Amino acid sequence: MWFLRETIFGELVEYFSGGTRQVDVEKLGVCTDNSNVELSSCPDSSFDDEKTNQVNSEGLIIVTWDGEDDPENPKNWPLWAKLVVTFDVCFLTFAVYMGSAIFTPGIQEIRETMHVGTVPVILGLTLFVEGYAVGPLIFSPLSEVPQIGRQKIYVLSLIVFICLQIPTALGSSLGVLLPMRFLAGVFGSPALSTGGASLADIWQPWLYPYFMCFWSLGAVGGPVLGPLLGAAMVVAKSWRWQFWLLMMISALVLVIITFFMPETSEWHLLYKRAKRLRELTGNPNYKTEAEIASSQLSKGQFAKQILVRPIILCVSEPIVLSLTIYIGLVYSILYLWFEAFPILFTTVYHFTTIENGLVYMGILVGSVLTVAFYFIYLRKVMIPKFVENKGKFPAEEILIISFPAAFFIPISLFWFGWTGRESVHWIVPIVGTLFYASGSFLLFQSMFQYLAAAYPKYVASVFAGNALFRSSMAAASPLYARAMFNNTGPSYAPVGWGSTILGVISCIMIPIPFLIYKWGLKLRSRSKYAT
Prior knowledge:
Oligomer: single chain
Helix content: over 70%
Radius of gyration: 25 Å
Structural class: mainly alpha
Number of helices: 23
């Protein structure tokens, strides 16, 4: 079965069995009897320059898809195969993202076990999220290398992620716990940095936004359900079982993606086709465009592309800088709430550890409701516009949905902060978090899609830089969250003024999508990176 053949399991079977994939050489127009004879000289060849491979000026045979309907092209896979891959990416993202928040219910027990203060233990959350920032700088560019692809990075990094949970669970000091948490964040990051790219590999542009929503739900569900599952482990067993559970869930994901997740990278699939043709014909001139481009990069240039370009884009491009700061703020609020929720619901409402884990469900409910609305918006507004204009319309129009979303964030913060008091039922502040879920979801969807449309040639670097700054901002937020809320009060609304500070900052950010909508085209015309 072709689906299993393209998975890691299929590749391992092929490697250890000594098998070689057969290529339909007549279909590709390959002359196999003499590797030095040009294709045009093969009288029985069905070669068609415009349909398949082309010979460039250097005599290299550029390997491409066999027309628009080539069945090996991921965009032409059957629907069931695309749905399986989508599920794999979403489940992988859910499991890895859960690793950050599953830690929080055990902070008190870890503090008591290791005889340290609260802030040093919170570093276990901070360093894990900081790993999200560092990982994409490494793994995102590697996933674009044709010889590597995405699949191997997913599997190998997840194996390391699983192994890191063992010393984390067995550790008896922060000297063990903290480095392991940071490394786990680094090796868990590929799903977060390239998951969207995997979906873009298989879905047509007008369908891609729909399935990005499901991936986003996986990204939301992980940190939302993490505290609940972590709390259950802390109550039933101990804080160490948070990491054993994370290891078991991740191991299940590893089994699934090993057997049921084929490679989706177009450049890697074409590279493997070119490699098979080289082996079959003995002609070394079969190359892909990506293979040629990557071979022209020196190690220094590749390192610069990985480490320097993302930072340059984030700092020098006004559009990227402003949206990165905005997204970083919204992302930070979620991790601030990992400290604010226990303060409010334990101090004011006297919730148990398990009940504290349940309060995050408001964010998940809000995200699901927003997805339903967003589907309607896509179907009625964006997709018809995309089809009518054949995908060619000002990128700034993608930001329209972010206009109301920008107001939802401060509304949520003021609502949550000042309704969290003993005289108000506990469900009321939770309802306030629904506005955050809706606002953050719509902001993330619109802003990331806009950045991809505005910087198509450098989208990997833009997203890597965004992940670096966004995750760094979020990583720092738990360290000052408890002090901010405890020191601002007041006692009858313990998260009131702290939420107000965040709400005011969010209000300052509201004009950003409006300004980019108005001036974005002019800014892009002056940029050497944007289109």
